[in-house]
Amino acid sequence: MSNRSPLEWPIGVPRTKYRDRSVYKVSPGAALKHLLVQARLLSGSFVLTSNARVNRDGNFYADELERKLDDPGIALYWTDGKKLQRSIAVDQFGKLWENMRALGLAIEALRTLQRTGASQVLDRVFSAFIRMSAAFWRSASESMRILALMLVLLGGNRRRGSCRSGVLHQMRD
């Protein structure tokens, strides 16, 4: 495990323009602990990046989790079992610890998919993000982004594929 500062946001991943307040009812320390446990269970070797200060050992200073940062985003990088480099980044919320909590929950959901034998869904999710351009993610509304991801995840037969192509074509116009 390694924590790095400054934040290294994944290329092509859109940034949140307006941050929300979270409804998480955990302490900042608990959010960090949960994130680290989930990241270790996902991959023994990973890198977390954020704009929070870290000490010489690469650990976050305790007061950094609640400090107001200009950019409270956080990103996780790891290599999966197929030796593919993966990343997830979150900047939805105004405080670093809230984004840590969201990232920890997202990783936990990914691990659930792995444990249930539905890892092909993970492969589709990551390939969907790669195939869709950054321009699409910036310009599409939230509901259109969700619809596009759901259509890609559903995959399926030619009929569904042609429908998906039509919907994606309409979204680009």
In words, what does this structure look like?
The chain is of the alpha+beta class. It has two domains: 2-116, no CATH class; 132-173, no CATH class. It is built from six helices and four strands. The chain has helices at residues 28-42, 96-115, 119-131, 134-139, 142-154, 158-172; strands at 2-4, 46-50, 74-79, 85-90. Strand 3 and strand 4 (85-90) form a beta hairpin. Helix 1 (28-42) packs parallel to helix 2. It is globular and about 40 Å long.
Task: Describe the secondary structure blueprint for this structure.
Blueprint: E1 2-4, H1 28-42, E2 46-50, E3 74-79, E4 85-90, H2 96-115, H3 119-131, H4 134-139, H5 142-154, H6 158-172
Parallel strand pairs: 1-2
Antiparallel strand pairs: 2-3, 3-4
Q: Which terms summarize this structure?
A:
173 residues; alpha+beta; 2 domains; 4-stranded mixed beta sheet; globular
Quick summary:
The chain has 173 residues and is α+β, with helices and mostly antiparallel strands.
- Proportion of residues in helical segments: 40-55%
What is the H/E order? EHEEEHHHHH
Count of domains: 2
Range of strand content: 5-15%
Kindly name the structural category. alpha+beta
Instruction: Tell how many strands the DSSP assignment holds.
Output: 4
Number of helices: 6
Largest sheet: 4 strands, mixed
**Mean pLDDT level:** 75
Strand order of the largest sheet: 1-2-3-4
